[in-house]
Design brief:
By secondary structure, this protein is α+β, with helices and mostly antiparallel strands. The chain is built from four helices and five strands; from the N terminus they run βαβαβααββ. Helices cover 30% and strands 30% of the residues. The structure holds nickel (II) ion.
């Protein structure tokens, strides 16, 4: 019997959406406020979802304390209070949209979690805008 367990974590980070192949005007037209040259911050909310079988010995799908530590050490410590464009290698050349941040985080966590678990994440950039990766099949 498969079950999904979810852990929510938070981090604050600054970014700027900017495509160097485009003119300043096109960047401004496409990205709007998120193109602000002096950067701006978001309070990101990350939901990590693991789907797996309940371990009959523990009654757990996954130890939530261990999951919390794993997210904190691999994701939150890396991105919290950072300027994603300037302070992180991941977004030196990759535009730090919610979509790209979600894929980067998923790739980081996938390496840390046994493949017997299905991994899905949601990333909220604002209360109203959030993305899911991988996409629903
Ligand atoms: Ni933004």
């Amino acid at each position: 019997m498969k079950l999904t367990v979810c852990r929510k974590e938070y981090f604050n980070a600054a970014h700027r959406l900017y495509n160097p192949k485009w003119s300043d005007k096109k960047n401004s037209d496409i990205f709007g406020k998120c193109n602000n040259p002096n950067y701006h911050g978001h309070n990101y909310e990350l939901v990590v979802k693991l789907t797996g079988d309940i371990n009959p010995d523990t009654g757990y799908v996954y130890d939530m304390k261990a999951l919390s530590v794993l997210i904190k050490t691999n994701v939150v410590d890396k991105f919290d209070h950072k300027n994603l464009n300037l302070d992180t290698n991941e977004f030196k050349k990759l535009i730090p949209t919610a979509e790209n941040i979600a894929v980067v985080i998923w790739n980081i966590l996938r390496k840390q979690i046994d493949n017997k678990y299905d991994l899905k994440i949601q990333l909220y950039e604002t209360k109203k805008n959030f993305v899911e990766y991988p996409a629903q099949q």
